[in-house]
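dumping this here before i forget
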Amino acid sequence: MNFETEQKDGKLYVSIEIPHYNPNYGIDKKEIRTGHVEELLRERKIKHGKCIKKSHIKNWYEPIRRGQWIFELVVDKPAEPVIIEEEKSVKPKRTRRTRSSTTKVSTEE
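structure:
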C-alpha cells in the first residue's frame, strides 16, 4: 500500500494507492474507507481535524484503486483570557400581601 501525506494551505492531503487484487500472487481483496484512513493517521500520530473530502477505494476495480482524502489541520489556539464579571446583587423578591391584610379595618371609638 502506498500511503502519502502532504500539508498545504492549512489542510492535510492523504493519498493512498493499493495493489491490484490478484489471487495468484496472494494479494487479497481490500477496501479502504474514511474510517480506515483516520485509524492509519492515528497510528502514525498525525494530528488531523474533520474530513473535508472523502473517498472510497477497492483493489478489485482498477479505476478506484487510488484515492485522496482531505482533512482540516488541527491548529493549537492560544487560550483566550477569561473575563470575570462581578455578580449583580439580587434584590429579594417582593411577595404579595394577602387580601385580608389589604382591606381597611374600621376602628370605632
